[in-house]
Design a protein that fits this description.
By secondary structure, this protein is of the alpha+beta class. The chain has 15 helices and 33 strands. The protein is elongated and about 90 Å long.
């Protein structure tokens, strides 16, 4: 409990006293506000107070030398009402660019621990002073009560990746609060109907969508995705609805969304960007870390320039002890104050680089997060590569705590599913948890986050509609975005009226999603894939704040068969637990997991093999009943004859899914198609799902 404190000094007419040095940021205390900020190389620090929306401070309160302990300045200012002011800092110190020291007391410096950033609460509306950010003090008084949910095991997650604005911004979404946290909240019944049990929100930390805005052919382009963080502790206020702006409690609308999602069995994972910041390189803006300790927070070359392993201008010096503390404090804050279930770390390999940029065997930051007690049940998911050439899929330092976005799953499954050769073995590895990458005796089924599509690349529909990227509207003459898409347009580039091509595309989307749902490891897919959303061939829509990136909900009716298939396969994965993990307590005579070709138990795959199958077997939740699931992929363009494995006495194979059938008959569980002779003819480019059915 904070005790009552009395002023000891008066500065510029304000009663003040030394503050709480271990409370970084600005924190309400009895009778005032505690301001704490640290800088190793600063020679002085001044607190600046602004009227809300003002361009210049109404008072400057220099920290007396006696208010500094070590490298930390702390001061309580009495009599402040938190909704009546904004704040920033002016920090002075040496200027030696070759040593990375670039202090400039004329700059307004944003508190890196700010819980709310002001100046740009309306999307796309520039603040009057570009790159001048101020902070608000926040009461963290949202009453969670004894709210608690049971964590979902990582391998059982079905993760739905979405962009807060793009998810509901289009009028077709039918929500009142389009493009906001409240808009997602309105869509919770839809998410429940779909069946997913986790959402992964693309960056929601405060970012400036117009910081690098430009025009191309008359269209304004934005930093739409938000992978350029301004404030790490602050939610993006432009994602709040009008109602959210009125209650003067930054974060409340997001907390309400999180509470309702979790109350409906949907976990919340945040996509976080600790590899770089919006300050960019020496040509970029100067508003926070550059003015505090540039040569500590950023990874610098020997001549004081910025390393750029992020591809975005700078790299946070993540394994410096001060930066490690900052990142861990940030994650702890989001877990304790917002009840976040997990984090996906953008370009996470950067987090494992030393201060000179070299990869480390046991990076201190990654290890400290893995063993942090507050983060003990928090899911840690790495994008295990960076823009500097470091690729660590299968080798990311884990301590059996870190999972990985499995980029090899995406690449191998895309290639196999479209019929490329010499991939049968790779496909079986990916379907069964990528044991060639993740040792199951150590990491179980908790390491691989499988995905075929995500925000970065083609949507699932575009994956089968385009051979090449079509990024011209991004303004870089189609030079941006990956050229290695492993896609296939099915015979026509882009939109077509050809019914056969469109039918094939629907079929291939179903094949891809069935494969994802029948694979071991967590599953992730991109919002809108369930109704064949398109980005018109743009595989890098980071700057497109328009229908290119917004979900077109009218396609849900147009592609209703695909939507129903996604719903069915999600429910199927939840229903048959043997898909996600071994159930060793079973008396079933079949192994928990086995591989097959067109002939059962035969795996003499060769370069032209294009049929693979996996069978999962184990105990059912129903006593005295075995749970046996067979999943087969015929990636060849020709029909093939398949023989399924023999079953224990009293069981027969029943076909649940056959994508070679007519679109409205693909789900055939209720058609009672029994394979008494264990044989079936599969059409070309078809997947089969069969389940052992008890007949005696």
């Amino acid at each position: 409990m904070l005790r009552d404190l009395k002023p000891t000094d008066i500065i510029c007419g304000y009663n003040v006293r030394p503050g709480y040095y271990d409370m970084e940021g600005a924190t309400p205390v009895r009778g005032g506000v505690n301001f704490t900020i640290s800088s190793v190389y600063a020679t002085s620090c001044t607190l600046l107070l602004f009227a809300p929306g003002a361009r210049t401070p109404y008072v400057r309160l220099p920290f007396p030398d006696s208010y500094r302990i070590g490298n930390t300045y702390s001061m309580i200012v009495f009599g402040l009402e938190i909704d009546k002011f904004e704040y920033a800092y002016s920090i002075d110190g040496p200027h030696d660019e070759k040593k990375g020291l670039i202090f400039d007391k004329s700059k307004y410096i944003l508190d890196p621990y700010a819980k709310a950033v002001t100046g740009q609460s309306k999307w796309g509306k520039p603040q009057r002073d570009q790159c001048v950010y101020k902070a608000r003090v926040v009461f963290n008084d949202y009453d969670w009560g004894n709210f608690k949910t049971t964590p979902i095991p990582l391998e059982e997650l079905i993760i739905y990746e979405l962009h807060v604005r793009g998810f509901t911004k289009d009028e077709s979404s039918g929500v009142e609060n389009r493009g906001t946290f409240a808009g997602i909240r309105e869509k919770i019944p839809y998410l429940k109907e779909l069946g997913i049990n986790a959402v992964e929100l693309m960056p929601i930390f405060e970012f400036d969508e117009i910081g690098a805005h430009r025009y191309f052919e008359g269209e304004q382009l934005f930093d739409y995705w938000g992978y350029n963080t301004v404030g790490f502790f602050a939610p993006n206020t432009s994602y709040e609805s009008e109602r959210g702006h009125k209650h003067h409690r930054e974060g409340t609308e997001l907390k309400e969304l999180i509470r309702d999602l979790k109350s409906n069995g949907i976990e919340v994972i945040l996509d976080v960007v600790f590899n770089h910041t919006a300050e960019g390189n020496e040509l970029g803006p100067f508003f926070s870390f550059k003015g505090i300790d540039n040569n500590i927070y950023y990874m610098l070359t020997p001549d004081g320039k910025y390393y750029n392993f992020s591809g975005c201008g700078n790299v946070l010096n993540c394994n410096h002890p001060i930066v490690r503390t900052f990142i861990k404090s940030c994650l702890r804050y989001w877990v304790t104050e917002y009840k976040i279930d997990g984090f996906r770390f953008d370009l996470a390999s950067i987090l494992g680089r030393n201060e000179d940029g070299t990869p480390m065997d046991q990076p201190p930051l990654l290890k400290s997060l893995a063993f942090d007690p507050i983060l003990g049940h928090t899911k840690l998911i790495a994008e295990a590569w960076d823009a500097g050439g470091l690729y660590q899929v299968g080798s990311f330092p884990s301590w059996n705590r870190w999972a990985e976005w499995n980029g090899k799953y995406r690449d191998d499954m895309r290639r196999f599913l479209k019929g490329d050769s010499d991939l049968a073995w790779a496909a079986t590895h990916r379907l069964t948890g990528s044991k060639d990458l993740y040792d199951p005796s150590y990491r179980g089924n908790c390491a691989s986050v499988n995905f075929i599509t995500c925000h970065d690349g083609f949507t699932m529909w575009d994956m089968y509609s385009y051979n090449e990227k079509h990024n011209y509207k991004n303004g870089w003459y189609n030079t941006d975005g990956s050229d290695d898409n492993n896609s296939w347009n099915c015979g026509a580039e882009g939109d077509t009226d050809d019914p056969q091509i469109n039918a094939l595309r629907r079929k291939l989307v179903k094949n891809a999603f069935a494969s994802l749902m029948c694979s071991r490891g967590a599953a992730l897919f991109l919002a809108g894939d369930e109704f064949c959303n398109t980005q018109f061939g743009n595989n890098n829509a980071y700057c497109q704040d328009n229908i290119t990136s917004w979900l077109d909900w009218s396609r849900k009716e147009q592609y209703s068969d695909v939507f129903e298939f996604f719903k069915y396969m999600i429910a199927f994965r939840k229903r048959f637990k043997v898909i996600t993990k071994n159930r060793r307590e079973s008396d079933c005579t079949l192994p928990p997991e086995s591989l097959h070709s067109q002939k059962p138990w035969q795996t003499d795959f060769h370069p032209e093999s294009r049929y693979v199958a996996v069978m999962y077997a184990g105990a059912s939740s129903i006593p005295l009943l075995d749970e046996i699931v067979y999943f087969g992929i015929n990636a060849h363009w020709e029909q093939t004859d398949v023989e399924l494995p023999g079953l224990p006495a009293g069981y027969v194979w029943k076909v649940y899914v056959d994508t070679g059938r007519e679109a409205d008959r693909v789900i055939c569980e209720n058609d009672n198609i029994m394979l008494y002779d264990r044989r079936i003819k599969l059409q070309g480019r078809t997947v089969l799902v069969a389940v052992a059915h008890r007949i005696s």
